[in-house]
Amino acid sequence: MTEYLAAVAAALVLGIQTSLSPCPLAGNIAALSYVGRRVGRPRQVFLAGLLYTLGRTLVYLTLGMGIVAGLLAAPGLSIFLQTYMNQLLGPILIIVAVFLLGLVRVGVPGPGVGEKLQRRVDTLGVWGAGLLGVLFALAFCPISAAWFFGGLIPLAVKLHSSLMLPGVYGLGTALPVILCAGLIALGAGSVGKAFHVMAAIERWARRIAGTVFLLVGIFYVLRFLYGVL
Predict the structure, then answer these.
(1) Mapping DSSP to helix (H, G, I), strand (E, B) and coil, where does residue 162 land?
(2) Model pLDDT, residue 120
C-alpha cells in the first residue's frame, strides 16, 4: 500500500513537473490566455479550466491504459517485465532523477496556437478549452515524452496501474491552469504571481522527488542488479 501511495505521489509530481517544463508550459500559458479572455464570466472561466484539465487527463488516461494493458497482455513481454522489471526500474529511476535534479537540461521550443486552430477553438466557445487540453496533451515534446514514457509508464507497468497513475499524471499536467482559472474566477488579478509561486513550489518538489527517485533507483540497482542489499 505504501509503495502504491508513493507511486501516486510520484505520478502527480511528474505531471506537475511536465506542466512547468518549457515546452508544455508554453501550451499551458496559451490555454490560460484563452481562459483569461472570459474574465467577465467567472463561471465560464472556471468551467474552461476544468474542461482543459479534463481534456489533458483523458488523453494521458487513454494512452496509459492502452500502453500498460498492451504491455501486460502480451504473454512473452508480460513474463519478461514481471521477471526483469525490478532490474530495469532502477536505471530508469536514476535517469529520471538526473533530469528532475537538472543535471541534464534539454531546451526545446514550446507549441504554438496557430491562427486556424485559434479560430476553430473560438467557434466552440468555452468547450474549446477541452479541445486545447486534448491537443496540447497529444503534442509530445522530448521533455514531456521522457516524463510520460520514461517515468510514468514503468511505474504503471510495475504496479499494474493502467487507470490511477496515468489519471493522476494527467491531472498534474493541467494543475497550474485549473488553479489559475480558479484565481481568475475569484477576481484575483495577480495570476502572474501565482505562476511564480507554483514555479517555486515545483522547483522544491522536483528536487525532493529527484532525490527520492535517485535513492530508490540506487537501492533497486544495488538490490536487484548486484544483490548487495
Answers:
(1) coil
(2) 64
The pTM score is: 0.71
Closest-CA residue to 155 (of 144, 166, 146): 166
- Whole-number Å distance between alpha carbons of 132 and 45: 14
Contact 147, 14 (CB under 8 A): yes
CA 79, chain centre distance (Å) = 28
pLDDT band for position 180 (cuts 50, 70, 90) = confident
Given a contact cutoff of 8 angstroms between Cβ atoms, the answer to whether 207 and 65 are in contact is no
Distance CA 85, CA 154 (A): 8
d(CA 225, CA 102): 26
Q: In angstroms, what is the C-alpha Rg of the chain?
A: 19
Residue 226 is predicted with a pLDDT of 83
What's the rounded Cα separation, in Å, for the pair 151 and 155? 7
β strands within 23-98, DSSP E = none
State which amino acid sits at residue 38: R
Average pLDDT of the residues in 161-186: 80
Report whether 41 contacts 178 (CB < 8 A): no
Comparing C-alpha atoms, which of 22, 13, 23 is closest to residue 151? 13
What b/e sequence results for 19-58 when a residue is b if at least 16 CB atoms lie within 10 Å of its CB, and e otherwise?
bbbebbbbbbbbbbebbeebeeeeebbbbbbbbbbbbbbb
